[in-house]
Structures are given as C-alpha cells and as structure tokens.
Design goal:
heterotrimer, A alpha/beta (597), B alpha+beta (128), C alpha/beta (595), B: 128 residues, 4 helices, 38% helix, 21% strand, C: 4-stranded mixed beta sheet
Chain lengths: 597, 128, 595
C-alpha cells in the first residue's frame, strides 16, 4: 500500500519535440501521452513489459541501435525517434514474419473485427507476405466449458502466460518447447480442464488475437429461443450494464440497463430478470451467516464466495480455508434456483419447461453452472446456459437490433427490482460494502450514516479497514463491535491476505480480519474475463464509476430494504439461513487437486 | 585457517613444487586428465603407467593428474620430470606409449620418439 | 656414458613436408660419424607449432631453437653444438631485434602464447588445493582482503582494462562498480559457466584444470562489490568440471577460504553451484538468472541491467569463467602488468579453442592483438593435409566467417567486429577448400534455430525462415530473391530481437554474403556446390577409363548401389546413391568423379 505521490517529471524529446513526462515510464507510454502512437503487439498496460513481439522498436538519437519502446524507460534529455524508414522497415518485416506463421482464417475467427493483429496489419498495408508459410497446425484445447485454446493462432506475445502466472497467480499456462516450436499451453501439456485453470478468462481478455477465446454458446441460446414450447428466461449480472454499451460505440461506464432489458425482450426471452436482486438476497444470507459466526464464535474470517474462479482457486490452492468460505451461492446460482422454484410456482409454469439463461461478465460462470450437484437444487440444472457480455453483444448484432436507439424498458418481477447494494457487486469491494450496510442494520437496528464505505472501494490490490457497529439492535445498547475486513481483487493479491490469516491461526493469534471479499479479476466483475475487450485501468475506472453511479441513483440502497426480497422471504423462504434457504441458496466445498491426472 | 597458516602453506608448497618431488619419490608423471584427455583415453593410459611401473617394480615414481594442457590434437598428454632428464611433455600417450615411456624414458633415460611436444608458453607465475 | 643431449626434430606435418625426415637421418648419421652417438639422442617430435619457420630442431637441455634448418645443416649442428658445445648462431631463431635466442625466455615464439587464464592448467593437480596455493593461489584474495579496500580492488580491475570474455567485452571493473553503486541489502556474484558455442571448451578446461582460480576470483569480486553470495551457473553436461568445483569448494570451506570470516578478515562469502540443462540461451545473463530462480530460461528486456536489478531483483554482477580466471593475476601482479599485454582497447589475453581443418587443434591463449595468421599457422601448424585455407569462423553462431584477406586481422574486440565477425567466447574454427560456406552457415543457423528460446518473434520466426532458405539454396532451388529476403530478415532480426542470440543469428549469413556471395550464386545459378559438400548438388560417377574393377568401392558402399564385374568398370546407380562419399574415399585410382 504505497501512497501514490505526484511523479517527478523528466524532459525528453519525441521526434525532436520537447515534452515533459513522469519519471520512470516507458517510451511507449510517453509516446501515447503525447499523441505519438508506437505500434506494438505484446505490450499491455496491465502487464509488465515482456518485449516479445519486436514491433515497438525505436531509436535513441545518437545510437544506431534500435530499442524496444515498451521496455525502455525515458531518460532526461534523450530524443526518441519513433518513426523513420529503417524503423518502419524493421517493423514491417517483423510483422510479415508473424503473419507468415499465422493462419489466414480471419473470416471464421472469434476475433474477426477486433483483432489487434488484424488492425496493425491493416495499418501497415500488408498485401502479401514475402516469406514461406510456417503455420503450425496444433490441436485446439476444448476441454473446459469456459475458455478454449487455439494454439495455431498464437503469436507468442506472452500476455496470457504473464496474466495467468503473475496477475492471477494460477500458473496453469506456460510456454512449452523452445524456438519456433514454442507454444502456450497448460504446464505439463495436460488439457486446460486437467490443469489448475480457474476459468477466469483473463487470458482470453488479454489475448491480442483469437488464440484464447470464451466458449461461444450464442447458437445454443438461439436454439433455446426457437423452441416455442419452452419458457426461456434470462438474468443479467451487475457488471454487464456498465460495459455492454462499449460494443455499440458507447463510452465505458455508460449505464445501459434499460436498453439491455429491451434488447433481451426483442431477442425473444419471455422474462427478463436481474441478478442484482439475487445479489441482494446473497447479502441477506451472507450477512446473516457472518453475524451468526461472529456472535456465536463460529469460524472466522468469513470469506465471500460469489466469484466462481475464486471458489475454484480456493478449493485448489487454499483447501484448508474451506471452513471459512461462505456457503451462500453466487447471485447467479441463487437466481437460477429461484427461477425454477419460486418463479415457476408463482407463474404456474412447470419448471421443466423453463430454460434459464444468464448474461455474465464472466467466463467462469459457464463452469460454475455445472460445478456440483448443488447447482441442481431445483431438481434440474438451475441455470441452463451462461453467456458472456461479449456473446450477448454478438446476439444483439446478429438480431440486427439498433442497440443505441433502443428505449429503456423495465425489468420483470418478482425477480427484477434491485437496490444499490445489489448493483455494486460488480465492482471490487462491492459485496463487502453491501454486506456491511446490511450487517450494520442487523446489529445496530439502523442504517449507516453514510452508506458509502469508501475504504472498500478503489483499485488498490488489497484494501484493509474496519467498521464499528453499535450493538443496539442485538439488545446490547451502548456497546459496539468492530468488524475488520479485507478486500482483495486480482487473484495474485489474495496470497498475502491468506498468508496473514494462516499465520495468525497457526500462531494462535487474533485473526487479522473478520470478513474477506475476494474477486478473481482486477477491479472485480467490471473487468471480468467475459467483458468487452480492452479492459485497462482507465476503462475499469469508468465502468466502476458507472456502477457507483447506478448505486447513487438507486432509490433503495440496502439489500434488506428491497421489498421484493422481503416478500420472497415472507412468501417462500421464511427467513435467512432457513432450511429452504439452505437447500436452495447454499452450497458446500471440497478440496480439489491442482492437476486432475 | 589463519592468514599465517595460509602463507606458511604457500611457502612450504613452493619449495615442494620447485623440488617437485619429495621423499623417496624422484620421478613425477603428470597426466592431463581433463574431459578431453579422459575422452582420448587418459584413464587407460593411467592404468598402463601403474601396471607397467608395478610389473617393472619401479617404486620411485609418483603419478599425478592435472587439467588440460591444451594439446587437443595429441591427447592424452603426460609430463615426465626426473633427474638427469629434461622435463618432457609427451603427446598421444596411449597405453602402449605409456609402457614405452616407462621403459625408454624412465629406465633407459632416452626420449620416446615421435611423442615429444613442446611447452606451449612460458610460466607467468614463475616470472619476476 | 649417459645421454647428455637430446636433439629434437619437429615431426609435424609442416616440417615433415620440408625435409624434416632427411634432417633427422643426417643428424643421426653425423652423430655416429663424429663419435657422439652415445651422448646425443635424436628424436622426432610432435609439432612445435611455429611451422612458418620450419623445419625446426631443438636441442635439450639448453633449449636452443634452430629454425629453417636444411638437411645439410645437420653436420654443423652436431659438430658445433654437441661436440664443441657452441650453438650454431646463424640457425638460431632471431626476433626482429636481431637477438639470437637461446632458451625459452628469450624466444619470442613462446610469447605467441601467454598463459594467464590457463596458468595452472596442465601444471597443477586441480583437486589439490595445496598445489594451487603453492603457485600463488589465494595470494590475491589475501592481498585484496588485507591490503586493499573494495574500492581499490575495483579500481585495479578497471585500470587493468579487463573486458568480459564471454564475448560482449563489457569492461569488468565497470560492471563491478555499477553493481557496488546500486544500494541494496544483498548483491550477488554469478559466474557464467554456461559455455555453449559449438566447438568451444575454454571455460570447461579452465574449471577442470584450475577450479580454485575461479573460486578465488569470485570471492574477490564479492568483497569488491559487497556481495556475500555467489552462484556458479554451469551446464550439467560438464560433470568433471562440476566434480572438480565441488572438490575445490569443499577444500576452501574446510580451509576457511570460503564461508564465514574468511581468513579472519570478517568477510563472509558463500558459493553455490547451479546446474543448467544445457540451453544455449541460458548463457545470456538475464535468461541465466531466470534459470537460477527456477524459471524458464528466457531473456528479459534490458534495462534494467543486472547491476541494478538482477538475481531476485538484487544488484548482480555476472562474469564469465575466463574473465574471473584473470582476476587473481591482475590483483597480484597489478593492473599495469596486465595492461601492458594486448592492444590499446583490448588488454590481456584471450583463450581460443582452435579447431577445424587445422593440424594442431587445441586450447591456445594468446595476447590480444595476435593475428589470425599467427594463430592458424604458427600455433595451429597450418591447414591439415596441405589443403588451401578458406576462412576462419570466429564467435560461434553469433560470429562471422573471415576469408583469407583478413588473416592479418589482430584479435581484439573492435577489429573483429569491424570485419563483420566478433570475439565471441573463443571458438575458432578453421575452414579449408573442402568446406562449403553455405553448408557451414547452415550448420550455425541450425544451431541458433534449435537454441532459440522462442520468446521474441524476430528470433523465433526469422531464424527458421533463414534456415529454410539456406536449405533451399543447398538443394539448388534458391533464387536471387532469396538472397534479398535473407538480407531483409537479417536486417530486422539484428534490430528487433530481444537478446543477442537473436540479434546475432543472421551474422554468419550476412558476413558470408559479403565475402562469399559467389558461392551462394553458384548454388543458385548453376546448381553447383563448388566445395562438393551439398549432397543434393553433387553426383558421384565412375570414370570408366580409370576404374580397374577392384570392387573396393562396391564393398564400401553402404547403399549397395555400385555394381560391376571384377576387372571391369563399375557403375553407380544414381537413384540409390546417398552421396556419402565412401566410394570416393575408398578408391585408390581416382576413378570416382564428384561433380
């Protein structure tokens, strides 16, 4: 937690023009800040410079050598030449080399139209490749329900491996072999499903080409919609509403909830529900679970479990922490089981005739719906298919819907109207904030003075803070409890939090936290592996702002105040942690081996 | 070890190296036993020296190993030092040549034809 | 009466061809005739090197060195030198200064090799620390620890002008200084013993012959830089070197020359051996550190340089075995002594592994500035089998091929780079007229492609493209556009590769396109391999007039494709011929034609 201090500036020249840039940044970034685009294929703002592609070469005046703009730090006084005939020739040759080994399958590629290699080739005006083709035909890895590997298309940029190892600390992907036989694949050359992969899909989100993609199920959903004897319903996750607009030319963070409802109806879904409601429900269950453990000396810290990648990760890497895991299902799965029980009952439809689809910012959700038998609490698959935001965008385009000009429509109830607490699930810290809003009320009998818990928000990898809650509501006026919490996002940031807890437990010391929220993806679901391409911190900030705006705009901002949730308990579930709740809304966890074989 | 002990060891060693041979051992054979020498058969050469010296009952010879002398074209190599003879580096010392060296050089005090090599350079350690 | 003199006649190939045999006989005859047959033994020797001045006769024990001896000089040598004890002045080797030489210390010839790095190799028992100590071993450490400050040690190394012997030639002292300057709680010293160029074995031999010199130097480096931990990264393919290092490390621990409080100085230093799996790229320093850290050996972008952020993010100095082996001598004899050897910008000596079509292949150590000609002809004894010199390949797969007009190039970092090759780690491979340049270059490309780590696109893809084109050319299917394409790829690889392995992969091609373009064109335009090496471009046929039908070729042919009756001309079935050349080598009647 290093406080960000204003950066020292250095004076450099870019193509002879004097500019001032922060100390320590790369030439690539300096160029971008001052309107000079240096082409590159492997550099990504999320990742350390790796220097693999060789496209971003520039010269430093006074030296005939070329250096990589991505890995060269600006030095006071130097003049960087970013474009000259030698540089362009070098870049073009390297690009031609890469193209000569890349399958010419743009038309049927998942990345057709948003491929970074396609874009740069267009800019360089490559019309034919002077080198003999060296395309390798490697088998695709279709073993997981979430992401697929198409190694033949890999350009060796290394982003996926760095993401998997350093950003996510999963170490499923590795480079295998050497030289021109190098390929990215699960370490040990097992299939992805047999590897420690947690299906977060960050590799697919960072891949510049179509070498790693989400499993596309749009055709499957179209086929559901073709079945006239079926009642096809859909739910949308919090983070989808602030990102989908990007696919249609809107700014990141634009809230398009009403347009999504409208679009889904036009696609043919019978009912449109909102996962934000079940997020509210999750809070009711999880906050109750927390307080039960807190007040009765149960296992603490309690760790959130709405992120399926995190669930997979914990079951593999931190098995001894399983008792700490909240047994509450994710909002998507809660919604799934309620659709086929509560809603089916209310609408008087045979659950067997309902097909339940979810629109998620996430690739791991595709895995989660078949994670264990607990995901069939209605007696059948609670969720039949989970699409990513990217897939929904494709369906809307396929249907010819003019998304930008759609009217805002309303959601369907009883599983539609949500609170601000439900919507902030989409950003890191949101679950914690929502849970504390409700826990505060449960303990003190009143709402927090300011509902914004700023300490839980923001892009810091691990956020630690505490909230003091008067215990009036528990019949102990004048006293208060202090809830210490930690919020981690970006899987690699979890390591330190888990270490602190384990060390304290092993030493018999007071645990450092009571409540921990973990989201696998940096920034939370707003930059999930299934979101529109191009998630950077800049984009994340905008999407996050959209999420908190949605919360601010909400009339009701606490889950316990959601009238639809209240009536759900009254009519159907009884109370939080009731037997019915346990059956429909909770799950259990088992240790899993890192490698299946 | 202290500094004094190191110095004492160096001085004692220098005398020994100059005399080269101590006690009842008056003849020294140094075999080049780098990877190159061993690959070229230096181990067989070593065995041949030992067996030949035993069978001829020559007891005043000490056999040592050293690293590569640089004569890759003529491995294995052996340096023979004894009183009354110049120090000689022999090259291409196979088992047969080893027996010849014992017989001709050590016992007859004559050089073995066609196997003599020259030192590659002067010794900078002994300079000044 | 015992023998009092030995008369050594050089029996090397060069001298043999210039009548050494006659000299040998005449010397024997003269000794008998003059009645000293029982005082002098005339023997033939292996090559002395220095073939330029052959035939050579050397008299022991006084070490008189006679050059350009003629058969008729034999009588005088015996009569004057052996009988009367007076050297024959006119035959003695003279230096430019006209001083008649007698005894090794006066003979400039011995200066052709100056053994600093190899000072103990071939002299001491590498597994006996006492012998190392007896030859001033650990005296430099003693001097550094007790008489010098770390800054003084660095200043001495800087003043010596020592540059990295791994190939790049970065000043060693500067590297140490940069490492010391970076603030840190720990610094590391790494010895790069991941020697991997084809045909290079300088470092292996140094470690096998004198392991303590490297340990001593690393400890001095640790003291100078404020590091307490060193690593030796060595390939597992060097078991003997590893064994001797382990023995040496055990000895130095036991003797308090390594570990805590070395020699009571208060300085601690530990060394660990890390074994590499033999990937060439792990000789690249950032890849090497990745490998030590347990990661896949792939180069990282520089900067940051290891001296700022190296092993585990700490300042690290990585020096090559040969660089280290120089250090104790520099400390002990002082920078001026060392700097007096070599050229203006390249000081000291360089060890070369001299191989190829040369008479005396071997490990040679010469002062910087020695010419290629001196190495090839004086030390190496010239080309094997009297064939014509074609070129010398230096710098391994990263280097270039230098034709005959560069034989007088002095060996130093700048001169070699200027003519399109590089110092490299020290492999020198001599090529003769039977070597096809395109084929040799293909060999190096094959190596570089095989050893590419696969990280950066220019190296990963470009190397293979170049190799494919070379294969095309050696099959006679190349085009003029291919030459342009190779230049295009080479240009980009040199500029856009991440590390030097990729950046130098095209060097063998680019340097030979400069000096041997004709040979490429012969393959392309005439589908002809002038050296007769490229199998797809040659045919073996029997010259019927010369064939006597001895059947030797038919019996030697591994493909059983030669037929013919006894005493009748034979015939090679071209469809089955695998072009191994066995028939050509076997035929005593020159009846096999290679075309």
């Amino acid at each position: 937690m290093i406080p960000t201090k204003p950066a020292k500036m250095v004076n450099i020249k870019i193509n002879g023009k004097s500019v001032e840039v922060p100390e320590g940044i790369s030439v690539l970034k300096a160029g971008k800040m001052h309107g000079t685009k240096i082409p590159s294929l492997c550099a990504h703002p999320d990742l350390k410079a790796w220097g693999a592609c060789g496209i971003c070469v520039v010269k430093v005046e006074g030296s005939p050598k070329m250096v990589r703009a991505c890995t060269t730090t600006v030095v006071e006084g130097q003049n960087y030449l970013t474009h000259d005939p030698d540089i362009v020739e070098t870049r073009r040759t390297v690009l031609e080399m890469i193209l000569s080994n890349h399958p010419n399958e743009c038309l049927t590629c998942a990345r057709n139209g948003n491929c970074e290699l396609q874009t740069i080739s267009a800019e360089f005006g490559i019309r034919d490749v002077p080198f003999a083709s060296g395309i390798r035909r490697l088998p695709d890895d279709l073993s997981t329900p979430s992401v697929q590997l198409h190694p033949s298309k890999c350009i060796g940029c290394g982003r996926c491996v760095i993401v998997c190892q350093e950003m996510q600390d999963v170490w499923a992907l590795e480079f295998l072999n050497r030289g021109d036989q190098t390929r990215m694949a699960p370490a040990g050359d097992v299939t992805l499903a047999e590897s420690p992969c947690i299906k977060c899909g960050q590799c697919s989100a960072h891949c510049p080409v179509g070498a790693i993609t989400e499993v596309d199920e749009t055709r499957r959903v179209w086929n559901f919609l073709r079945q006239t004897d079926k009642h096809v319903v859909v739910q949308i996750a919090p983070a989808v509403r602030v990102a989908l607009g990007e696919e249609f030319g809107l700014e990141p963070g634009t809230i398009v909830t009403g347009k999504i409802y409208a679009a889904l109806r036009r696609l043919g879904f019978a009912k449109v529900f909102d996962t934000n409601v079940s997020a509210d429900l999750t809070i009711m269950e999880e906050a109750s679970e927390f307080l039960q453990r807190f007040t009765t000396g149960g296992t603490l810290p309690l760790i959130t479990s709405c992120c399926p990648s995190w669930v997979d990760y914990l079951e593999k890497y931190h098995t001894e922490m399983i008792p700490h895991f909240s047994t509450a299902k994710s909002p998507m799965m809660m919604m799934g089981s309620l659709i086929k029980t509560y809603y089916a009952e209310k609408a008087k439809i045979d659950a067997k005739d309902i097909i339940s689809v979810a629109i998620m910012p996430c690739t791991a959700k595709k895995f989660e719906i078949q994670r264990s038998d607990d995901m069939k609490s209605s007696g059948m698959a609670d969720v039949d298919c989970s699409l990513t935001t990217r897939e929904l965008a494709r369906m809307i385009k396929q249907a010819g819907i003019d998304f930008k000009n759609l009217p805002d429509e309303q959601v369907d109830n009883p599983l539609g109207d949500y609170t601000g607490a439900g919507t902030i699930f989409g950003a890191t810290g949101g679950v914690m904030e929502a849970a504390l809003r409700t826990a505060y009320h449960m303990v003190s009998g009143k709402n927090l003075g300011s509902l914004d818990i700023e300490a839980a928000r923001g892009m810091e990898g691990v956020k630690v803070a505490s909230v003091k809650i008067p215990t009036d509501g528990l019949g102990a006026p004048g006293k208060e409890i202090e809830v210490r919490f930690a919020v981690a996002h970006g899987m690699a940031n979890v390591r330190d939090v888990m270490r602190q807890v384990k060390e304290a437990k092993a030493a018999g010391k007071e645990i450092p936290f009571h409540f921990i929220e973990v989201m696998a993806c940096r920034g939370g679901c707003i930059s999930g592996g299934g979101q529109p391409y191009g998630s950077t911190d800049e984009v994340r900030a905008k999407r996050t702002a959209g999420i908190y705006k949605d919360d601010k705009n909400a009339v009701i901002r606490c889950s316990h105040e959601n009238p639809w949730v209240q009536s759900l308990y009254k009519d159907f579930l009884g109370k939080p942690l009731s037997e019915k709740s346990h059956h429909l809304l909770h799950t259990h966890y088992v240790p899993r081996p890192l490698y299946v074989k | 070890m202290t500094l004094q002990e190191l110095r004492a060891m160096r001085e004692a060693g220098k005398k020994a190296m100059d005399r080269r041979i101590g006690g009842d051992k008056t003849i020294e054979i140094t075999l080049g036993m780098g990877t190159c020498g061993i690959a070229a058969g230096a181990k067989e050469t070593l065995d041949a020296f030992v067996n030949e010296l035993n069978s001829k009952d020559v007891r005043n010879v000490v056999i040592k190993q050293t690293g590569c002398m640089g004569f890759c074209h003529s491995e294995p190599t052996a340096l023979v030092k004894m009183d009354g003879m110049p120090d000689i580096i022999y090259g291409n010392v196979d088992a047969e040549t080893a027996r010849l060296i014992v017989h001709t050089h050590i016992l007859e005090k004559k050089l073995v034809d066609k196997h003599v090599f020259d030192r590659p350079s002067k010794d900078i350690v002994k300079e000044n | 009466m015992a023998l009092s003199n030995f008369c050594l006649v050089c029996g090397g190939t060069g001298c043999e061809s210039s009548k050494a045999d006659e000299i040998f006989k005449n010397l024997k005859k003269a000794a008998e005739e003059l009645g000293v047959g029982n005082q002098v033994q005339v023997v033939k020797t292996g090559c002395f090197g220095f073939c330029e001045k052959g035939p050579i006769v050397k008299i022991l024990p006084d070490e008189s060195f006679y050059v350009e001896v003629k058969p008729e000089d034999a009588q005088e040598i015996i009569a004057e030198h052996i009988v009367k004890g007076r050297p024959v002045e006119r035959l003695l080797y003279k230096t430019a200064g006209q001083v008649a030489a007698k005894g090794e210390h006066d003979i400039q010839f011995y200066q052709k090799q100056v053994r600093i790095v190899l000072r103990n190799c071939g002299i001491i028992n590498p597994e006996d620390v006492q012998e190392y100590i007896s030859r001033d071993g650990y005296a430099a450490l003693e001097k550094a620890l007790f008489e010098m400050t770390p800054e003084q040690v660095i200043a001495e190394v800087k003043a010596s002008g020592l540059r990295g012997r791994g190939g790049a030639g970065y000043p060693t002292g500067l590297k140490w200084e940069n490492t010391r300057k970076t603030p840190a709680d720990q610094r590391y010293v790494i010895c790069n013993a991941d020697e991997g160029d084809p045909g290079a074995y300088m470092d292996r031999s140094t470690l096998e012959g004198d392991p303590h010199s490297v340990l001593e130097a690393m400890t001095i480096a640790g003291y100078a830089m404020g590091a307490t931990q060193g690593y030796i990264y060595i390939r597992a393919e060097y078991p003997l070197a590893i064994h001797r290092l382990e023995v040496a490390m055990k000895q130095s621990h036991e003797m308090g020359l390594m570990g805590k409080n070395i020699l009571g100085s208060g300085f601690d230093f530990e060394i660990e051996i890390r074994l590499g799996a033999g990937a060439f790229v792990c000789g690249e320093e950032t890849a090497l550190m990745q490998s030590i850290e347990g990661k896949r050996g792939m180069p990282l972008p520089k900067p940051p340089f290891p001296s700022v952020s190296g092993l585990w993010g700490k300042p690290t100095s990585i020096n090559n075995v040969e660089s280290f082996a120089n250090i104790p001598v520099i400390i002990l004899k002082g920078a001026p002594w060392f700097a007096a050897i070599g050229t203006a910008t390249s000081k000291g000596t360089k060890v070369f592994a001299l191989t190829g079509k040369i008479n005396n292949s071997g490990l040679v150590e010469v002062p910087m500035g020695t010419t290629l000609r001196e190495i090839v002809y004086d030390i190496g004894g010239g080309i094997r089998g009297g064939k014509a010199f074609k070129a010398v390949q230096s710098g391994g797969p990263s280097g270039g091929v230098l034709p005959v007009q560069f034989l007088d190039t002095p060996i130093d970092y700048e001169s070699l780079t200027k003519v399109g090759s590089m110092m490299g780690s020290g492999g020198l491979i001599v090529l003769d007229e039977d070597d096809c340049i395109v084929d040799v270059v293909k060999f190096y490309l094959d190596f570089s492609v095989e050893e590419s780590c696969g990280k950066c696109a220019p190296c990963r893809i470009g190397g293979r493209k170049l190799l494919n084109i070379l294969e095309k050319i050696t099959k006679g299917k190349g085009t003029h556009e291919d030459i342009d394409t190779m230049r295009q790829i080479g240009f980009a690889m040199q500029r856009a590769s991440l590390c030097m392995l990729g950046g130098t992969t095209p060097n063998p091609i680019l340097s030979t396109l400069k000096y041997f373009e004709d040979e490429y064109l012969a393959h392309i335009d005439k589908q002809n391999c002038p050296a007769g090496k490229c199998k797809d471009l040659i045919t073996y046929t029997v010259i019927a007039e010369k064939c006597i039908g001895c059947t030797v070729c038919a019996r030697k042919c591994p493909a059983n494709c030669i037929s013919g009756e006894r005493k009748a001309p034979h015939l090679i079935d071209q469809a089955k011929c695998i072009k191994c050349g066995a028939c050509y080598d076997a035929c005593k009647f020159e009846a096999i034609l290679v075309s």
